[in-house]
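Worked example 2:
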Amino acid sequence: MLSWAALLVCTLALAGFFTAKTRAIALGGESPAILHSRPVYHGGFVAIRTAFAGLGVLILGLILTNIAIRWALYSGLPVGLSEIERDLVVSDGVALANGSLASRSGEARDAVAALYGRLATLQVWGLALASVGAALFTMMHGLRQVSIPFRARSRFERIVQIVLTISAGIAVLTTIGIVASLLGQTLVFFSEIPVANFLFGTLWSPLSGVHDGTMDPDKVGAIPLFAGTLLITVIAMLVAVPVGLFSAIYLSDFAGARARSIIKPMLEILAGIPTVVYGFFAAITVAPFLRDTGAAIGLSVSSESALAAGVVMGIMIIPFVSSLSDDVINAVPQSLRDGSYGLGATRAETIRNVVLPAALPGIMSAVLLGVSRAIGETMIVVMAAGQGANLTANPLEAVTTVTVQIVALITGDTEASTAAGPAFALGFTLFCVTLIFNVWALRLVRKYREVYD
């Protein structure tokens, strides 16, 4: 129902655009210059106001009503339940109401399901009518404003500026929301487990050390996870950065138009391959190849190794580094190349001493994007590197990463109240490490950035 309401709002906005534009053209007649704003701005003003009003009511209404519904659901729960148990009862009740859960039942869950069904129906019909009504009212009001002296262009540009400001604000609020959602459970976890044990411990087996709901502080050391993450990331970047950067240099300064039109799309196809396919490739092809090759030369290579995961992850990251580096290198002014050639430098010397230093900030940004992609990858690690928390610097052994353990804790069969703590702590710590790394990289980019005319 809400999707149909949104579609109807967009239809009203489109109808308002053409109606206002036609009315403005009629007012201008044979002398359109008498209009303060061109007809397209009259149409755009009505259309964007209509869409903004209808969709704004719909989105804001969804947010507020969802908050109200959750408050109503939680307020009706029995007293004495923990926070995790309350969340589970509410989520199961909502799933029962939606028909996606039939195995779990109980008085509390059935009550939540019945209440949610009534409130959800009221929410859908109320928001649909409110959004369409707001859009229709705004469209009619905008059409009445179409006139010769009406400053439609100024109003239109002001609304566009407001939309852009709201979009920027949403990005900031999203970041704040992510931090807030991680921080609560993380503080609860660290109130029970010393921070030093978590950050500097070398044994990770949190669920095996649970007694009466309390974890063993000596079994929550995250060093093996971060060491595995770092090891696989380094291997991936050792593959992705040279291949991606050299590919970008070839495409920008050596390849002809025909070769570029073939090679660049082929490289970018790698970015569209699902990660599970890369995982299959790593587990079925690369890992056995490395194991057999290692056995042939006398090395013991595990069936699940950091090397296999890192190599395949590096292949996956190549298009990110290559495409962005190619765009940055092409953005270097041709005058710098011509000046270098004029001084007698060869093409290779020009690239090494002029082009690459000028494009260094952009290349660093491409590398940082690749590092972030490697840190957050999960599927390839699960299928090719394993899930055992092994503290080692040997790329031929099995390791695991932070993201894999987060997924294992959240999606496992363990009680959510037990697994949530270490999972949130890992997520918050990874967020902090990534933030520090990005700040450092930004300072490095600013240090070497140069501005050219």
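Residues 135 and 164 are 20 Å apart (CA to CA). The two ends are 54 Å apart (CA to CA).
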